[in-house]
Design a protein that fits this description.
The complex is a heterodimer of chains A (432) and B (440). With 432 residues, chain A is α/β, with parallel strands linked by helices. In chain A, 47% of the residues lie in helices and 13% in strands. Chain B is of the alpha+beta class. In chain B, 68% of the residues lie in helices and 8% in strands. In chain B, strands 1-2-3-5-4 form a 5-stranded mixed β-sheet, covered by helices on one side. Chain B contains 14 helices and 5 strands. The chains are: A alpha/beta (432), B alpha+beta (440). Chains A and B meet through helix 1 and helix 3 of A and helix 1, helix 2 and helix 3 of B. Chain A: This is Sugar-binding protein. Chain A: InterPro entries: Bact_solute-bd_prot1, SBP. Chain A: Pfam families: SBP_bac_1.
């Protein structure tokens, strides 16, 4: 009897504790606090005066819509420190409910289940998510599971020195130009103009071998990151084309300032760089000497070009996922907020509707550079035909190794002999 | 089983070591996280981990709480009687807590499995499902030993955390981890050996006691036989003395008187007649003496009591001594038999009950005593196993002979057990004292 009474009272105690906990957590009037993780400044390494202005506006509107939710964030964390700050919070179990995912950390965080799988939260509103550019959405998607929603993208484009091309009698490349067209123009314009025996006019600066691979349609890894194709026929061919392009400049290292002084025909540039460069004082000092234009990267009409995208995610450890989802929606899917982002920030919005809007066209027109330099249609085309980088945890690590080794091999002209060994080293890293 | 002092000490030590080990591992998570954050290595840690860890403070609190409850539960079950009775449900709680600790500590310390295993063995005899629980304990040991748990669930491994410490500190910290783990295993083995030795010792002890009991038993048997023999001798002597005193005296007197009569009958028939009257008187007195002697041999139960009272008392004593239920249906209330008849019937009923219990292993005996038109009937029925062929041994023969003395018939039957049927002829005026002379 005594035992039964003791057991019964234990069971009653546990059940009532559970009951109280359920009542408390489900109380609709309970004020909950969402923690938001953002960094100061631009994601694209360009000056950005007051990045908190937009965040504050979004939060204010959100809190007005949802009076039982308060949003808090820590200000003053620079982009450089953010990854480290976020890691500290993550391993201490104090992560924010909603946070900006640094581009380089997405694979790491999604692989270590730090990010909430949003599929169930997206649920029936999947049509809303279709409003994103596919490549922007794909940046936060792994194996059909959405772990983060895109916030801002930064498509790459090619700046063309119109005066230099006109001087050489070359037409402006069409939107559908290929890598071969690009190489031909570069070969044509690379020359010694003052006759001192040294090259002083060049085809391109700041063009990387990774861009050459993409524009030749060569992939370096499979999607799962289990195989490396560095030594494949396609990659070899693309790399040797790139080596030929580099070889055009002889031993001279062409820099960005050479482009600024009008001696270079092409320079790849991100949208953020483009939009920042136009603002005072850069525009006056740099681009007053020649007329220029932006065109899509060569080969982009046939192959997908990599587009960096910043993402917002919900922590898998968050205890207010529903509220976090609402905030995430406001940050990424809200047309008004995204339009404001395009106006204030230097990158591009991730919503098709925003990028093709009249407001966007107006913003681009009002830059005093002439409406022809960069149109919203061009950006739209660039973003539509872009892709995101593969999603596996060791991507950054192996890319760093590949970059160092391939760059060295190109400089030393030993690509053919080095590629097999670099590939096997990368595959070792991948399988470890 | 009786739990020895050493066994209890080993057990307490095992509980203590496990608690310290859980505390140590939880602290390592807490302090290593702190150290890594302090040295700005958290990103590097994340890169090496398979899964993002939870809050280390929460981990610490939960691990310590779970370990405390587990240790208290193990102790409470032995020392608080109300909990001891709850046996199996307690083991289930212990198993659940064990799994909780494994998960909370991210599979970094699995010694608690041995702890719970130990408790299952310790209470093995009190548990109905101990074999099932042993299998559960063994399965969990296997699972954790081969890291199956960490393959099913991704865990942030403690070794990765420790690798961030300088080599010497990491070695020291790891050393203590493995020390606790090994010490735990050693203690568990010591516990098992102590347990085995204790149960062996207990078995030996039991055997010794059994031997002692057997010895005492046989000594008692001998003693009973001896005292029976002594009582028999004493009774024989008493009877001999009685016969010598009463019959000897009377018969000697009668012999002398008859001798005198032989001489006198020719000389003086008158005097011979007188002498014979005297002899007759002596004979009557002798008969009286014999009757008194026989009266002393009456069953104890019947002394100064009626047959019914005697039977009731005897039945009551029998019921107390054995687990037999005896029902007596006595319809002889208006019957008054003489002492000899009562004695014989009492002995017969007593013998029948003894037989039912001893040979028939009966649980229930019914004694019916009816009065018919021209005889009295006693039916003694038991529910024992009876016997296929009735063999007339000493008991049954004795019974038959005794009953024959009082002119009664007896029949033994094998119906639903064993049945004894006695029929005693009715004498006219059975309650008349002088009528009873006929059957003496």
């Amino acid at each position: 009897m005594k035992t039964n009474r003791l057991r019964d009272s234990l069971i009653i105690f546990v059940l009532s504790a559970l009951f109280i906990a359920i009542i408390y957590t489900n109380n609709p009037d309970r004020i909950i606090t969402l923690r938001l993780g953002v960094y100061a400044g631009s994601s694209w390494d360009v000056p950005y005066a007051d990045s908190y202005h937009l965040v504050d506006q979004i939060i204010k509107a959100f809190e007005k819509k949802h009076p039982h939710v308060k949003v808090k964030y820590v200000s003053g964390i620079t982009k450089e420190d953010y990854s480290s700050w976020l890691s500290d919070k993550l391993i201490q179990g104090q992560q924010c409910d909603v946070f900006m995912v640094p581009t380089d950390d997405f694979n790491l965080l999604s692989d270590t289940s730090g990010l909430e799988n949003l599929n169930s939260l997206i649920g029936n509103s999947y049509t809303d998510v279709k409003a994103f550019y596919p490549s922007a959405l794909a940046a936060g998607e792994v194996n059909n599971r959405v772990y983060a929603l895109p916030f801002e993208s930064n498509p790459m484009m090619m700046c063309v020195n119109m005066d230099l091309l006109k001087k050489e009698g070359i037409n402006l490349p069409s939107q559908n130009w290929t890598f071969q067209d690009f190489y031909k123009i570069c070969r044509k314009v690379t020359k010694d103009t003052d006759g001192n025996g040294e090259l002083d006019q060049f085809g391109v600066t700041g063009y990387t071998w990774q861009e050459a691979l993409e524009e030749n349609g060569a992939a370096l890894f499979n999607d799962d990151g289990t195989e490396c194709y560095l030594n494949s026929e396609k990659v070899r061919k693309a790399l040797s084309s790139y080596a030929r392009l580099v070889a055009l400049n002889g031993h001279i290292k062409v820099s960005q300032s050479d482009f600024d002084t009008g001696k270079v025909a092409f320079m790849p540039m991100s949208l953020a760089q483009y939009r920042t460069y136009r603002s005072y004082p850069y525009r006056v000092s740099r681009y007053s000497k020649f007329r220029w234009r932006s065109v899509p990267m060569p080969g982009s009409s046939r192959y997908k070009i990599h587009m960096p995208t910043t993402l917002f995610a919900i922590s898998s450890h968050s205890s207010h996922k529903q509220a976090a989802w609402l905030l995430l929606n406001d940050l990424t899917l809200d047309v008004h907020n995204q339009q404001a982002l395009f106006k204030e920030s230097s990158g591009s919005s991730v919503l098709k509707k925003v990028m093709t809007s009249k407001t966007t066209q107006k913003i681009l027109k009002n830059d005093n550079m002439g409406s022809q330099v960069l149109t919203s249609q061009t950006i739209n085309q660039m973003m539509t035909s872009s892709s995101s980088s593969p999603h596996f945890k060791k991507y950054n690590e192996v890319m760093e190794l590949a970059n160092n080794e391939v760059t060295l091999a190109i400089e030393q002209g030993s690509l053919d002999s080095d590629l097999p060994s670099i590939e096997s080293r990368i595959e070792n890293m991948l399988t470890k | 089983m009786v739990k020895g002092k050493h066994l209890k000490q080993t057990r307490i030590l095992l509980i203590l070591i496990n608690f310290i080990a859980v505390l140590y591992n939880a602290s390592l998570y807490l302090f290593a996280t702190h150290y890594i954050v302090l040295h700005h290595r958290s990103h590097a840690l994340l890169e090496r981990l398979d899964v993002i860890p939870g809050n280390p403070v929460q981990l610490y609190v939960m691990a310590v709480a779970a370990a405390s409850i587990l240790c208290l539960a193990i102790l409470a079950r032995e020392y608080i009687p109300q909990f001891t009775e709850m046996g199996d449900s307690f083991i289930v709680v212990e198993l659940l807590l064990m799994i909780a600790i494994l998960v909370i500590l991210h599979d970094s310390y699995n010694g608690v499995i041995l702890l719970v295993f130990m408790d299952i063995i310790y209470h093995a005899q009190d548990n109905k499902h101990w074999l099932l629980l042993m299998i559960a304990g063994f399965a969990s040991l296997l699972f954790s030993n081969y890291g199956v748990l960490s393959q099913v669930i991704d865990f942030p491994s403690l070794d990765i955390y420790l690798a961030f410490y300088p080599h010497r500190s990491a070695t020291m910290l790891s050393f203590f981890r493995y020390f606790f783990e090994s010490f735990n295993i050693v203690l568990f083995i010591v516990f098992l050996i102590t347990y085995l030795m204790d149960s062996l010792e207990e078995k030996q002890h039991l055997q010794q006691e059994m031997q002692m009991v057997n010895q005492v038993n046989s000594e008692l048997k001998n003693y009973v036989a001896l005292s029976e023999k002594i009582a028999e001798d004493r009774e024989r002597k008493r009877i001999a003395r009685e016969i010598h005193d009463t019959l000897g005296h009377a018969l000697t007197g009668i012999a002398a008187g008859v001798d005198a009569c032989i001489v006198l009958i020719d000389v003086s028939p008158e005097r011979a007649k007188t002498q014979l009257i005297a002899v007759s008187k002596v004979v009557r007195e002798g008969i009286g003496d014999v009757r008194r002697s026989l009266n002393k041999l009456r069953p104890g139960a019947l002394e100064n009591k009626s047959l019914k009272a005697g039977l009731t008392q005897m039945i009551k004593e029998y019921e107390e001594l054995s687990k037999v239920k005896i029902d007596l249906y006595y319809e002889w209330n208006h019957v008054d038999l003489d002492n000899t008849k009562e004695d014989v019937l009492f002995r017969v009923i007593q013998e029948s009950i003894t037989n039912s219990v001893r040979h028939g292993h009966a649980r229930h005996i019914e004694i019916n005593m009816f009065v018919e038109k021209d005889h009295y009937t006693i039916i003694i029925q038991d529910d024992g196993m009876g016997c296929e062929h009735i063999v007339y041994g000493y008991g049954l023969t004795q019974m038959k002979e005794r009953l024959a003395i009082i002119g009664a018939k007896v029949e033994f039957m094998n119906i639903n057990g064993f049945r004894t049927l006695v029929e005693i002829p009715k004498l006219k005026g059975e309650d008349e004292d002088d009528e009873s002379h006929d059957c003496r």
